[in-house]
Amino acid sequence: MKPALSAALGALTLGVALAAHAQNAPQSPAPGAADPTFSAYALAQQCAAKSDNAAQGQCVGAVRGIVRGYQYGVLFLSQRASLPEGETRRVSLCLTDTKVSSIVDDFLADAKQVNEADLKRTPAEVAVLGSVHAHHACT
After folding, report:
1. Backbone phi, psi, residue 14, to 5°
2. By three-state DSSP, how is residue 66 classified?
3. Which positions make up the signal peptide (predicted)?
């Protein structure tokens, strides 16, 4: 992997982690570190609490932060590194007219297909972005 691409991917990962962390962390760990307790399981529990307005607000905020952080990371990557033809499109998300509630519903449906132990070990950022890419990748 080219050094510029490797550095840009590192910045992308950090951007996603920071965006998600800012949405959910009552106390902050070391600067630049994601909250290790912000698991896919914890986010799925929040998002599944449909009758709890506070949990729904935190869920939507976290999902928005993760997606926006990723989108800014892709934009940063595309501006800073020379990528092969079509590579930016391959990692981009096509979310035109997509409601956050449908992203949350897709994430919950996907999370139900994974066992609880694996969800507890998976960072929320990874699970949400995996779900969004599965349902909204630009092809």
Report:
1. -65, -40
2. helix
3. 1-22
Q: Tell me the two tokens of residue 57.
A: 């607000």
**Alpha-carbon gap, residue 137 to 139, rounded angstroms:** 6
Q: 65: buried, middle or exposed (CB in 10 Å: 19+, 13-18, 0-12)?
A: buried
CA distance 29 to 21: 10
Q: pTM of the predicted model, to two decimals?
A: 0.71
Tokens of 88: 């930016």
The DSSP bridge partners found for residue 123 are: 39
The distance in angstroms from the start CA to the end CA of the chain is 23
Residue 132 burial class via C-beta count within 10 angstroms: exposed 0-12, middle 13-18, buried 19 and up? buried
Question: If you search the block for the tokens 């950022």, which residue do you land on?
Answer: 125
Cα separation, 20 vs 126, in Å, equals 10
Q: What is the pLDDT of residues 71-98, one digit of tens each?
A: 898 888 888 777 777 787 788 888 989 9
- DSSP secondary structure letters along 23-56: HH-SS--STT---TT-BHHHHHHHHH-TT-HHHH
